[in-house]
Amino acid sequence: MSGELRAAEGYGKPMKEDAGWEQTPDEFRMGFKILKNAGVVPPEVELFHERAKLRAELETCVTEEDRTAVRLRLSELEQKISLRLEALRSRGSL
Asked: Whole domain around residue 72: which residue ranges?
């Protein structure tokens, strides 16, 4: 051993738990941890971020035409999210 890890923050201490670790199903924890460490976000999380952006955009719409267009995009996205989550549930992945 060359001792390079001894300089690392938290060396010899328990690792800090990530937010949401306890709420994450056991079978997903390792995979999600690997993805997070690699800087990759699961597709479902990306969809939730996109939904939040659309909701914020809806709040800033000035015209009714713009609100209608954003509501349509939001509705389509929410349907996509629902279908994706239902598929995960039916496969027993959620």
From this structure: 42-94
